[in-house]
User: Fold these one by one.
Assistant:
Number 1:
Amino acid sequence: MGAGAEFEEYVRSIYSMLLNFKDEGILVTGGANTYLSGISGERYQIDVYYEFVRAGVRHRVIIECKDWKDPVKREVINALESKVRDIPGVIGVIISRNGYQSGAINFSKQKGILALTSDELPSLGTLIGERLKTVALPDETCLGEPFWTIMMTRSGENTGVWFALGFDRTEKKATFHSFSRNIMRSYFLKT
């Protein structure tokens, strides 16, 4: 696999994790076998592609990945904008490993193309942390079956720390409770 294909796979995996924090099942594809047809009849190879439906609206995104040693030129953004105009209902994104030439970013904004650098993508550690938050920490949508627990929050976000009803410094243990409809259980954590 060449450097360009590796970069495409990296971007594809980042977006797959970003879009599926809560196991939404959004398929992120791309590479040599992914093509979309434009209204002109032209078939375009797509580096990274995803689509999903929310609130009855279909969201379609194509991402061009540029793992070049030189910054991306305005002409490349122009070519992507042409592709976006030809493929109905898609949003265009370009991600460059080495930035953009002068004027290319402003041109992308004028044409409605999101231009990012690889440095703007979240790190693997950040993605793993966010995934753990969605599967391990309860939020306001959690039903609390069979047990509920009270957790501390900071700035409206769950901190992952149980709200303790007491801390015994001599025995170094905290008491916290979890609740269900008919049962209250006490737990003691030794530190």
Number 2:
Amino acid sequence: MNRNLELAKEKLVNEGHKFVLTNGDEYITSSDIGVKPLLEQVRKNRKFKGYVAADTVVGKAAALLYTLLEVDGVYAKLISEKALKFFEDNGIYCEYLTKVPYIKNRTNTGMCPFEEAVTNVKEPHNGLIVIKETVRKLMGDKA
């Protein structure tokens, strides 16, 4: 796993991706930010046992989605305390560069709406419901 995690980190850092998922042979990458690339994978209903991920920002919402995807490990450039605790509680290996109390929203005026929405969620499937509802609220009529 550590070799694959290093490969994922290299792609994240050196190739400018925001999200990398790999098993060492297959690479899934995205330049989208937030939970969007994770939601895309969840919608495909594919499991990623044997895969690891590298991500720029991992809050608790992302941690819930990674758990649903069944990844073996995650590297985050920036991770929230609640995300790290969730990974620890669910047996998902995690490395990170910087840990913060919570993920901020895009204007740095408060907590990320996804982080805030799932603060007290303990079960990944319930988290997915809350995350989808938050997307609908944020998108308004566009969802």
